[in-house]
Design a protein that fits this description.
mainly alpha
Length: about 110
Protein backbone atom coordinates (compact mmCIF):
# COMPACT_ATOMS: atom_id res chain seq x y z
CA UNK A 1 0.00 0.00 0.00
CA UNK A 2 2.82 2.41 0.89
CA UNK A 3 4.51 1.84 -2.49
CA UNK A 4 1.26 2.66 -4.26
CA UNK A 5 0.95 5.98 -2.36
CA UNK A 6 4.53 6.88 -3.22
CA UNK A 7 3.83 6.09 -6.86
CA UNK A 8 0.67 8.23 -6.82
CA UNK A 9 2.48 11.18 -5.21
CA UNK A 10 5.28 10.91 -7.74
CA UNK A 11 2.79 10.78 -10.59
CA UNK A 12 0.91 13.76 -9.12
CA UNK A 13 4.15 15.76 -8.91
CA UNK A 14 4.95 15.00 -12.55
CA UNK A 15 1.44 16.01 -13.60
CA UNK A 16 1.65 19.28 -11.66
CA UNK A 17 5.00 20.05 -13.28
CA UNK A 18 3.56 19.26 -16.71
CA UNK A 19 0.57 21.52 -16.02
CA UNK A 20 2.88 24.36 -14.99
CA UNK A 21 4.89 24.05 -18.22
CA UNK A 22 1.70 23.93 -20.29
CA UNK A 23 0.35 27.07 -18.59
CA UNK A 24 3.60 28.91 -19.26
CA UNK A 25 3.59 27.83 -22.92
CA UNK A 26 -0.04 28.89 -23.29
CA UNK A 27 0.70 32.29 -21.74
CA UNK A 28 3.57 32.81 -24.21
CA UNK A 29 1.45 31.77 -27.19
CA UNK A 30 -1.56 33.88 -26.20
CA UNK A 31 0.41 37.08 -25.53
CA UNK A 32 0.19 38.43 -29.12
CA UNK A 33 -3.60 38.04 -29.01
CA UNK A 34 -4.17 40.07 -25.85
CA UNK A 35 -4.25 43.51 -27.52
CA UNK A 36 -6.56 42.54 -30.41
CA UNK A 37 -8.92 40.76 -28.03
CA UNK A 38 -9.06 43.84 -25.77
CA UNK A 39 -10.13 46.11 -28.65
CA UNK A 40 -13.91 45.46 -28.34
CA UNK A 41 -13.77 46.29 -24.63
CA UNK A 42 -11.94 49.55 -25.36
CA UNK A 43 -14.48 50.44 -28.07
CA UNK A 44 -17.36 49.73 -25.69
CA UNK A 45 -15.77 51.96 -23.04
CA UNK A 46 -15.27 54.74 -25.61
CA UNK A 47 -18.90 54.42 -26.70
CA UNK A 48 -20.05 54.66 -23.07
CA UNK A 49 -17.90 57.76 -22.52
CA UNK A 50 -19.29 59.34 -25.70
CA UNK A 51 -22.85 58.57 -24.65
CA UNK A 52 -22.21 60.10 -21.21
CA UNK A 53 -20.65 63.22 -22.77
CA UNK A 54 -23.64 63.72 -25.08
CA UNK A 55 -26.03 63.35 -22.13
CA UNK A 56 -24.04 65.81 -20.00
CA UNK A 57 -23.50 68.41 -22.77
CA UNK A 58 -26.53 68.34 -25.09
CA UNK A 59 -26.27 72.05 -25.99
CA UNK A 60 -22.63 71.74 -26.97
CA UNK A 61 -23.35 68.74 -29.19
CA UNK A 62 -26.38 70.49 -30.71
CA UNK A 63 -24.31 73.60 -31.41
CA UNK A 64 -21.62 71.52 -33.10
CA UNK A 65 -24.19 69.75 -35.28
CA UNK A 66 -25.83 73.06 -36.17
CA UNK A 67 -22.45 74.55 -37.07
CA UNK A 68 -21.73 71.68 -39.44
CA UNK A 69 -25.16 72.07 -41.03
CA UNK A 70 -24.97 75.87 -41.37
CA UNK A 71 -21.35 76.17 -42.41
CA UNK A 72 -19.47 73.93 -44.78
CA UNK A 73 -18.09 70.82 -43.05
CA UNK A 74 -14.58 71.59 -44.37
CA UNK A 75 -14.69 75.07 -42.79
CA UNK A 76 -15.83 73.66 -39.43
CA UNK A 77 -13.21 70.89 -39.56
CA UNK A 78 -10.41 73.35 -40.33
CA UNK A 79 -11.31 75.60 -37.40
CA UNK A 80 -11.75 72.63 -35.11
CA UNK A 81 -8.23 71.47 -35.93
CA UNK A 82 -6.88 74.98 -35.36
CA UNK A 83 -8.62 75.18 -32.00
CA UNK A 84 -7.28 71.76 -31.01
CA UNK A 85 -3.75 72.80 -31.98
CA UNK A 86 -4.07 76.02 -29.95
CA UNK A 87 -5.42 74.12 -26.94
CA UNK A 88 -2.61 71.52 -27.06
CA UNK A 89 0.00 74.24 -27.42
CA UNK A 90 -1.43 76.08 -24.43
CA UNK A 91 -1.50 72.88 -22.34
CA UNK A 92 2.14 72.15 -23.11
CA UNK A 93 3.29 75.73 -22.49
CA UNK A 94 1.16 76.75 -19.50
CA UNK A 95 3.57 75.07 -17.08
CA UNK A 96 6.45 77.08 -18.52
CA UNK A 97 4.71 80.46 -18.63
CA UNK A 98 4.62 81.15 -14.85
CA UNK A 99 8.27 80.13 -14.45
CA UNK A 100 9.26 82.28 -17.41
CA UNK A 101 7.41 85.32 -16.06
CA UNK A 102 8.88 84.80 -12.57
CA UNK A 103 12.40 84.64 -14.05
CA UNK A 104 11.77 87.86 -16.00
CA UNK A 105 10.58 89.62 -12.88
CA UNK A 106 13.72 88.51 -11.02
CA UNK A 107 15.88 89.70 -13.92
CA UNK A 108 17.06 86.21 -14.90
CA UNK A 109 16.19 85.66 -18.57
CA UNK A 110 16.23 82.12 -19.82
Amino acid sequence: MQARLIKLHTQRGRLLERITHQRQALAREIEPLIAPLAMPARLAALLDETRAFVREHPYLVGTAVAAVLVFKPRFVWRWTLRGLLAWRTWRSLRGLVPAFVADLLRGQPR
